[in-house]
Write a structure and sequence with these properties.
Aspartate Aminotransferase, domain 2, alpha/beta, single chain, globular
Length: 458
C-alpha cells in the first residue's frame, strides 16, 4: 500500500537554531533593510525561501567526503572524481570547475558574446542576462505563449517557442552566439521543459550551425517531470533522462548549488576542444587553475557525491511532492499561483493577488514585504523589479509577469515549517486589499533587485 503522507527520506543529524522574531521586530528590520529582503540578515529570518541556491543541507556522505577532500593545487584526486561524475552524466569530455554557475556564465558568454551578438533562451535568468548584456550582446527570451498565463495548466510551460526560434535564427544568422535552454525554467515559474522540445531546439541549432547550451542547474527535477508527464519515458531512470537531454546539446553550464546539493560550486562542460581552451584561459586568469577553478578539494568532493544523490528516486519523489503540497494548500486558500506547481519553488502571481497595486508600484515587492512582516518569511520578487526596464523617458517597461518565488531549500525544512507558512498566508489573505505598493529610491545599473532601496507608497 502507498500512503498519502510523503515523509522526509532522511533523519536530522545536526540542527541550526532559529530566532523567532516578533512582528514589531520585523517592522524595524525591514525598514532598516530599505524594504529589500536581500538586505536582511539571516538571523532576522524565520523561514528563508529567498533562494534554493547554495542553501541545501548536505548529507552525511557528503560531509564525510569533505574530510577526504584533496586540497592539491593541481591534479587533485577530488577534481578527478568530480570530473568523472560530470563526464558520465553529461557525456562531454571537456570540463572546467567553477566556484558557481555565474562564473561559468561569465567565462563562456564573455568568450562568445560581444557587441552585435545575440543569445536566445526559453527565459534567461537574472545573472545569465547580466553576464550576456555586460559584454554588449543582446538576450532574447522566447518562451511558449502558455507560459505567460499563470493560471493555465500545461505540463511543460518551460518550453521554448520553436516557431519563434526558427524566425530568430533566420533573422540574426551568424550573429547568434548561442541558444540556451534553461531546465527547469526558473524565471518562467520553475516550469519544466519536455524532451521533445529539447530535441526540436537541437534540430534547429544543427540546421543553422548554432551553439546549443543547456543551463542544467535543476536537471534532476526536470527529469522527474519528463518521466511522469511525457510519453515514452516511463521506464527511464531519472539519470538516464538527464543523459538523454545532455546528448542533444553542445555544452552545459551548471550551478551545482541547486541539484548537486552543495553550498558552493559549479561547472562548464563542452564538446569542442578549441572552445574549452579559450574558456580555460579565462578561468585560469580570473578563478584559478583549471583543476580547481576557485573551488576547494572538499567542495569538489561534495559535488561529486551530490550529483549522484540527487537522482535517487525516493529523494526526487519527496522533493517534488513536498513542493506541490505547499502550492496546493496555498491555492486552496485562494492564493493565485503559477500553475502547475514547479519543482523547486512555489510562484505566487502578485499581480492577481494585489490587483489594486499598479505594476509601477511593484506588487511582487509588496507581497515579499508582507510575507516577511506577517511571518518572517523571506522570498524573492521575480517581476518588474528583477526584469523591468525603462524607456527613454525613464518610464517603467514592466515585465510580463509579477511573480514572487518561494524557493524551497533542499533537505532543510520539515513538514511543520511548511504548515507554519500556510498559516501565515491564511492570515495574510484577510487584509490583502489594504497592502500598499513600493517605490524605488535608489538602484544600481545591473541586477538591481539585489541591492535596490525601496520605500512604501504613501
Amino acid at each position: 500500500m502507498e500512503f498519502k503522507t510523503i515523509i522526509e527520506p532522511f533523519k536530522i543529524k545536526s540542527v541550526e537554531p532559529l530566532h523567532i522574531s516578533t512582528e514589531e521586530e520585523r517592522k524595524v528590520y525591514l525598514k532598516t533593510a530599505h524594504y529589500n529582503p536581500f538586505l536582511l540578515t539571516s538571523d532576522q529570518v524565520i523561514i528563508d525561501f529567498l533562494t534554493d541556491s547554495g542553501t541545501s543541507a548536505m548529507s552525511a556522505h557528503q560531509w564525510a567526503g569533505i574530510m577526504e577532500g584533496d586540497e592539491a593545487y593541481a591534479g587533485s584526486e577530488s577534481w578527478l572524481r568530480m570530473q568523472h561524475v560530470i563526464q558520465n552524466l553529461t557525456g562531454f569530455e571537456y570540463i572546467l570547475p567553477t566556484h558557481q554557475g555565474r562564473a561559468a556564465e561569465r567565462i563562456l558568454y564573455g568568450n562568445i558574446g560581444g557587441k552585435g551578438k545575440i543569445f536566445i533562451s526559453n527565459t534567461h535568468f537574472d545573472t545569465t542576462r547580466a553576464n550576456i548584456e555586460v559584454t554588449g550582446a543582446e538576450a532574447i527570451d522566447i518562451p511558449i505563449a502558455e507560459s505567460k498565463e499563470p493560471s493555465l495548466l500545461h505540463p511543460f510551460k518551460g518550453n521554448m517557442d520553436i516557431e519563434q526560434l526558427k524566425l530568430q535564427l533566420a533573422k540574426h544568422g551568424k550573429n547568434v552566439a548561442a541558444v540556451i535552454l534553461t531546465v527547469t525554467n526558473n524565471s518562467g515559474g520553475g516550469q519544466p521543459v519536455s524532451m521533445s522540445n529539447a530535441r526540436a531546439v537541437s534540430e534547429l541549432c544543427k540546421e543553422f550551425g548554432v551553439l546549443y547550451i543547456l543551463d542544467c542547474c535543476r536537471i534532476a527535477e526536470n527529469a522527474y517531470f519528463i518521466k511522469h508527464r511525457e510519453e515514452g519515458f516511463e521506464n527511464y531512470s531519472y539519470e538516464g533522462i538527464a543523459q538523454e537531454m545532455f546528448r542533444l546539446t553542445d555544452g552545459a553550464i551548471m550551478s551545482a548549488k541547486k541539484d548537486a546539493l552543495v553550498n558552493m560550486g559549479g561547472f562548464l562542460a563542452v564538446k569542442d576542444l578549441e572552445l574549452w581552451e579559450e574558456c580555460k584561459n579565462t578561468l585560469i586568469i580570473g578563478e584559478g587553475f583549471n583543476t580547481y577553478g576557485g573551488l576547494s578539494g572538499r567542495d569538489m568532493e561534495a559535488i561529486a557525491i551530490g550529483l549522484k544523490e540527487v537522482f535517487d528516486p525516493g529523494y526526487l519523489k519527496y522533493r517534488i511532492r513536498s513542493t506541490t503540497y505547499l502550492g496546493e494548500k496555498l491555492s486552496a486558500l485562494g492564493v493565485p499561483l503559477m500553475l502547475p506547481i514547479g519543482g523547486h519553488a512555489v510562484y505566487i502571481d502578485a499581480k492577481a493577488m494585489y490587483p489594486h497595486i499598479a505594476v509601477d508600484q511593484y506588487p511582487g515587492q509588496a507581497l515579499a514585504g508582507e510575507m516577511y512582516l506577517k511571518g518572517g518569511i523571506r522570498a524573492a520578487e521575480i517581476g518588474s523589479v528583477m526584469f523591468g526596464k525603462y524607456d527613454d523617458n525613464h518610464k517603467l517597461i514592466p515585465h510580463t509577469m509579477e511573480l514572487v518565488r518561494l524557493a524551497i531549500p533542499r533537505r532543510v525544512y520539515t513538514q511543520s515549517h511548511i504548515e507554519y507558512v500556510i498559516e501565515v498566508f491564511a492570515d495574510m489573505m484577510k487584509n490583502k486589499d489594504s497592502v500598499r505598493g513600493y517605490k524605488i529610491t535608489s538602484e544600481p545599473k545591473f541586477l538591481r533587485h539585489f541591492s535596490a532601496h525601496f520605500a512604501p507608497m504613501g
